[in-house]
Specification:
alpha/beta, Rossmann fold, globular
């Protein structure tokens, strides 16, 4: 079912660590040419690329600061020039910029989070859409968050708002892309065991995990497997959807 992935050019943002790294390795396992985007995690990206190659795929490093508008608009053209094309874009990069109670939140934290989690994915998807429109279609997959479903916590309201916007963007692009063979979907991870939680000051996930029906946190691989499914021929009749990987949460 996943043989259709072999040889596909796949650009994954935020692939130097976490869910993006797991996606890169899984696509590599099925023979994809993987664009491993990173900004600061150069060592992590190098290790990811080595694992992609060990698994039988090809890896192309793509360094870019997604807070830089110019870097966002040039990311897809740079990868296309290096790889010779683009069949799959995965918008995986994201983070919370400043985690304060919403009554204490400053404008900079709000603007930076929206810029990274909504504005950057839009302009990267825009570039992918332009390319795919003239080259037989493709897949655009954006990684949202359960924060879009529940609204985020008091400290991550800006992150939840950005991810909700990302899901709205997904549906709009899906309608526009259908006639061009561009299928656009989003994945809404629940509580996934990555460094994301440590970076926003969460010491433990134990209490939060107790609320999950399956009784465990998700893994990056849980999300990567759905991403692979949507990118493969198994996803040929799926567009405009948001899929939860939440353990029933």
């Amino acid at each position: 079912m996943f043989e259709s992935i072999r040889g596909k050019r796949v650009l994954i943002t935020g692939a130097g660590s976490g869910m993006g790294a797991s996606m890169a390795e899984l696509f590599g396992e099925y023979g994809a040419v993987v664009g491993v985007h990173y900004n600061q995690s150069e060592d992590g990206a190098g290790k990811v690329m080595a694992r992609v190659r060990e698994k039988g795929g090809s890896a192309i490093p793509v360094r870019a600061d997604l807070m830089d508008p110019g870097a966002c608009t040039q990311l897809v053209p740079r990868f296309v020039k290096e790889a010779g094309g683009l069949e799959v874009l995965v918008n995986s990069a994201g983070a919370v910029q400043g985690h304060h109670h919403f009554l204490e939140m400053d404008r900079e934290s709000w603007d930076m989070t929206i810029a990274l989690d909504l504005t950057a994915p839009f302009f990267i998807a825009q570039g992918a859409f332009r390319h795919m429109k003239g080259h037989g279609g493709g897949r655009i997959i954006s990684i949202s968050s359960i924060a879009a479903k529940y609204g985020g916590s008091d400290e991550t309201i800006h992150y939840g708002a950005a991810k909700a916007g990302l899901e709205a963007m997904t549906r709009t692009l899906a309608r526009a892309g259908a006639r061009h063979g561009i299928l656009v979907n989003a994945i809404q991870p629940g509580v996934i065991d990555t460094d994301f939680h440590r970076k926003i000051g969460r010491g433990t996930l134990e209490e939060r995990v107790k609320k999950i029906p399956l009784g465990r946190a998700g893994t990056p691989l849980d999300v990567a497997r759905l991403c692979l499914f949507l990118a493969s021929e198994a996803g040929d009749y799926i567009t405009g959807q948001v899929y939860g990987v939440t353990g029933g949460d």
